[in-house]
TrEMBL record:
Keyword vocabulary terms for this entry: DNA-binding, Transcription, Transcription regulation
SMART domains referenced in this protein's UniProt entry, alphabetically: HTH_GNTR
UniProt domain HTH gntR-type: residue ranges: 7-75
Record has Acetylation as a keyword: no
Superkingdom, natural source: Bacteria
A Pfam family recorded for this sequence: GntR
Protein name, UniProt field: GntR family transcriptional regulator
A single GO molecular function term of this UniProt record: DNA binding
Length: 136
């Protein structure tokens, strides 16, 4: 995993774990990799992974079974979506709108490219795609 300089590493790892949950790789009640295992896989300090797991536990996305490990909480995908949608709408969407405005990219082009991207990268995904019916 390559980390970005503009965001805390533990939050980037939390996004990675959340992605695995949203994609169904780690379903509800699935045991997560141990702190040491994930730290080794991502080549980070175990304290950083522990901070990630603490953060996700506070968000009620995962829970700890003492002595056994961390598990994906029931309805975690809904909690992830609420948190990430709010964060996206507040932080990333304004910058996205500014960029497409400055570059003269139309919403039709964005929609076409989004459809191509999702068809290529998530051909069997249960995640919804954009349609004209969903736009307001």
């Amino acid at each position: 995993m390559e980390f970005k300089d503009n965001e805390a590493i533990y939050l980037q790892i939390a996004a990675y774990v959340s992605d695995q949950i949203l994609l169904g790789t780690w379903p509800e009640e699935h045991r997560l990799p141990s702190v040491r295992e994930l730290a080794g896989d991502l080549q980070v300090n175990p304290n950083t992974v522990m901070r990630t797991y603490d953060f996700l536990q506070q968000q009620q996305v995962i829970y700890n079974k003492r002595g056994i490990g961390f598990f994906v909480a029931p309805a975690s995908d809904d909690k992830i979506k609420v948190y990430r949608r709010e964060r996206f709408v507040q932080q990333e969407l304004p910058e996205f709108f500014r960029t497409i405005f400055l570059l003269g990219i139309s919403l039709d082009e964005v929609q076409q490219r989004y459809a191509t991207y999702t068809a290529t990268h998530f051909p069997t995904s249960p995640l919804p795609s954009v349609s004209h019916e969903n736009q307001q």
